[in-house]
Amino acid sequence: MSEFVMSIGGDPVGPESTFGVINPSTGEVFAQAPECSKDQLDAAFTSAQSAFSSWRSDEDQRRKTLLAMADVLLASIDTLAPLLTTEQGKPLNDAGVEVFAAAIWCQYFANLETPPQVIQDDADALVHVVRRPLGVVAAITPWNFPLTLAFWKIAPALLAGNTVVIKPSPFTPLSTLKAVELLQEVLPAGVLNAVSGGDQLGAWMTNHPVPRKVSFTGSVETGKKVAQSAAPDLKRVTLELGGNDAAIILDDADPQWVAKGIFAGAFNNNGQVCSAIKRVYVPDEIYGEVVDALADFASSVKVGDGLDPTSKLGPINNAPQYERVKMLVADALSSGATAVTGGHAMDRPGYFFEPTILTGIAEGTRIVDEEQFGPALPVMSYSSVDDALERANATTFGLSGSVWSADPDRAAVVANQLECGTVWINTHLALAPNQPFGGCKWSGIGVENGPWGLSEFTEVQAVYRSRTDDGLNISTAGLVS
Ligand code: NAD
């Protein structure tokens, strides 16, 4: 049986059956997670629906509760971070940052004011626009940042007055289950429910008649299925999907300086970041120097078990992703690419792969065209900025991108031409709760974070108060004159 429970209607709910969760540093099952049944999912949605009318009615309580949730999360870092490291693989310090970010997101939304807009205030009418909650939100998350991404959804959804049922990835269910269990002490019953299970559970959620909104983060392939499944009863969707971010380096960039930033932007979380740098374009003049500097960083970084405090990078999270990275690198090498460093799985238990820098590679190779989502980076040369821009934009992805230069204004002109939801200049992966984040093209629909993300958990209502004696205003007056 499992020591982990789902949270349904404020109660800890044990499983009818379980599935194993693997520690990617060992490749061994270390815990059992509850496998949510259809009846249990129904109970979670029913609880969320029952809690909605009271939760939506008291904004002050919602703000106080979000602040209390932040306190619970901050007080639980020592419980949640090691659990996250053990199921996800990331170094313990990074896991702590994830829990901290979850708390910061709760605090940010607790304090975010979105006053009603008055659009007319004259002798005819007072008209204002308000935002109303949607109802029950189904939140579905991936395995790369289980806690941070959960609270990108939970915090704004709850502030807006919705109630939530969240399902983490089957590869990393435990930290989310534990966080939601701990949060029940400050939440009214049924406001935030957590269930766990495989991909089929996600499909049941998007098909279910109760939720009015699906907030999904995951792959493009699954995102399309979610959109189809949500369509028949017109559930609202926000889809945060994959990316194939390009970084374009301009010819005035110092190679050592730029390599440091590019390495950090590409290898954060072992490359398992939707908006990590996944392709680099370097001008011919400095190509060799940039490659050498990147190879130095990649070959000297300490890779190991995330619970070892000296590890800077952990394993790849799961066996299918590990096999995919191995396949993509092998495919590149067999197509003529060179691994200037790395190129192989590490000879130890678990899903460890050498940080890899690939050269002699171009578009048309799978690891350049597809999202590798792992510690292997193709570095390509270019001869004109227009050529680099065209190649950077020649993709169905459009999540984010960056331009690097000694002259930020020059970089901004190039960045302005990148087709993606976020462009960074001289950095990559700078994210904040007040900054909208979302993708163009197949990288998603809608955004998260800031007032823009909050509004995705609402619908607009126009409130028109007539001030004319006869109740006839512009459009109605014409009908009777
Ligand atoms: P995934 O699409 O395989 O799974 C994501 C979640 O969807 C999991 O909880 C999974 O169980 C669930 N799911 C699977 N099939 C489903 C279905 N038919 N209906 C409903 N839910 C279903 O993605 P993953 O492998 O867990 O995550 C990696 C992907 O997520 C990468 O492509 C990455 O770029 C993307 N991602 C995007 C963002 C962003 O904000 N844009 C952030 C992180 C990760």
Explain how this protein is built.
This protein is of the alpha/beta class. The protein has two domains: 6-241 and 439-463, Aldehyde Dehydrogenase, Chain A, domain 1 (3-Layer(aba) Sandwich), CATH 3.40.605; 245-425, Aldehyde Dehydrogenase, Chain A, domain 2, CATH 3.40.309.10. Helices cover 39% and strands 23% of the residues. The protein contains 16 helices and 22 strands. The protein has helices at residues 38-56, 59-75, 77-88, 92-110, 146-159, 174-183, 199-207, 220-230, 255-267, 287-300, 319-334, 366-369, 385-393, 408-415, 450-455, 474-480; strands at residues 6-8, 11-13, 17-23, 28-35, 117-121, 125-133, 136-140, 163-167, 192-194, 213-217, 236-240, 245-249, 277-283, 338-341, 356-359, 376-382, 400-404, 422-425, 437-438, 444-445, 447-448, 458-466. The strands form six sheets. A seven-stranded mixed β-sheet has the order 14-15-16-13-12-17-18, sandwiched between helices. A hairpin with a 2-residue loop joins strand 1 (6-8) and strand 2 (11-13). The protein is globular and about 80 Å long. It starts with 5 loop residues before the first strand and ends with a helix. The model has no long low-confidence stretch (mean pLDDT 97). Nicotinamide-adenine-dinucleotide (NAD) binds next to helix 7 and helix 8. Residues 140-144, 149, 167, 169-170, 199, 202-203, 206, 217-219, 222, 225-226, 240-243, 274, 371, 373, 399, 439, 444 line the site of nicotinamide-adenine-dinucleotide.
